[in-house]
Amino acid sequence: MRSLKKSLQFSLYEYFHESDLAAIPTKSAFSQRRNELNHEIFIALNDQVVAGTYAENRLRYWNDYRLLAIDGSTINLPHSQELCDEFGTQGNQFDRYPMAQMSCCFDVLNHLTVAAQLTKYSVGEFQRACSLIEIIGDSHDLLLFDRGYGGLWFFHYLTRKHKDYVIRLSKSVFKGAMDQADGSEIKIIDSLNADARDSFKQHQEVFVPFKLRLVHLTLANGEPELLATSLLDTEAYPDGLFKDLYAMRWGIEESYKQLKCHAELENFSGKSVESIYQDFYANIFTENLRVMIELDANEVLERKNKANKYEYQVNRNLSLGFLRDNVFDLMSSGKNYRQVYRKLTKLFQLSPIPIINGRHNPHLLPRIGTRCRFFMSNRRAI
After folding, report:
1. How confident is the model at residue 170 (pLDDT cuts 50, 70, 90)?
2. Per DSSP, what are the bridge partners of residue 167?
3. Does the pLDDT of residue 93 top 70, yes or no?
4. What does the pLDDT look like over 199-234, one tens digit per residue?
5. Which has more pLDDT, 190 or 355?
6. Tens digit of pLDDT for each residue in 365-379?
7. pLDDT tens-place string over residues 236-270
């Protein structure tokens, strides 16, 4: 939870030296004890944080829906034969290296990672998405997906699970539909072509006719965009809602940036399978713990900055550093945890950043001299 990014022996010294220098354990002793820790404790802690945060009834919803984005990403692992055997490898004709897949179900309005999974590299994105949907259960959710998830069998699966969705489509799903004018149409899927039948069979999905809605949009750059959704009521959900609605999916990309860049998720502290799982799920738990404290800090910032031009929010990178320095005190301080929590809430309010809606930064072409591993705007706080 404190994020072991420095030398292990130095990290042990940092933590134990305040009590007794003679009590500082060796790296070997720490690693042996660590192997006895089951990573599922972090999954259980994360479930408690998520459930407790939702129970406070102060979170944001979209038309009474919990707005969840599901997406996946690859994870680079340390070089280890044990990890190659457990997770699989990826590479080219010259070299192969261990890789894993991660998928998250992310509340884009409240910045909570509702569920997360780390799997073998060979596990497909559809399989991981279905597994996350099983985890979140029967809650009233609207799921957002990028175009990699466009498939008739998947629309059918979501309909059968009573999950509403908005999914961006590629040109190949409904051929010719991309070129139609802005607007929407209700399609009744009552038959399948050969390829679709094969997909249903492959995913063990028994076809029953169903309806979906296609929403045609034109982006600011003039490009057409096609969305598939289960929200069939055009009066309750007019076409004009969907551009901004789908844009909220970007929150999960920002979440991955937070985990990979600021929290250095791929900077693992061990080469055993258990240590990889520990680091992954501890990062997910710590990030949600940070969000829980951020909610309180943002409420204070909102009251303080009512007269300002912009709303302000907690600096996520800075707050992560504050939490990592105090997380063990927060988790182990017994009756004094409220004091640590109040301290963190005040620290989180330092150097807030303005919320500027509609800001767009154009993609810049590569320039000579910009190839570097460290960027001024991404300095870490851990």
Report:
1. confident
2. 145, 228
3. yes
4. 999 999 999 999 999 999 888 777 888 999 999 999
5. 190
6. 555 555 555 555 666
7. 999 999 999 999 999 999 999 999 988 999 999 88
Mean pLDDT of the chain: 88
HEC string for the chain: CCCCCCCHHHHHHHHHCCCCHHHCCCHHHHHHHHCCCCCHHHHHHHHHHHHHHHHCCCCCCECCEEEEEEEEEEEECCCCHHHHHHHCEEECCCCEEEEEEEEEEEECCCCEEEEEEEEECCCCHHHHHHHHHHHHCCCCEEEEECHHHCCHHHHHHHHHCCCEEEEECCCCCCCCHHHCCCEEEEEEECCCCHHHHHHHHHCCCCCCCEEEEEEEEECCCCCEEEEEECCCCCCCCCHHHHHHHHHCCHHHHHHHHHHHHHCCCCCCCCCCHHHHHHHHHHHHHHHHHHHHHHHHHHHHHHHHCCCCCCEEECCHHHHHHHHHHHHHHHHHCHHHHHHHHHHHHHHHCCCCEEECCCCCCCCCCCCCCCCCCCCHHHCCCC
Distance CA 271, CA 79 (A): 7
What's the chain's length in residues? 382
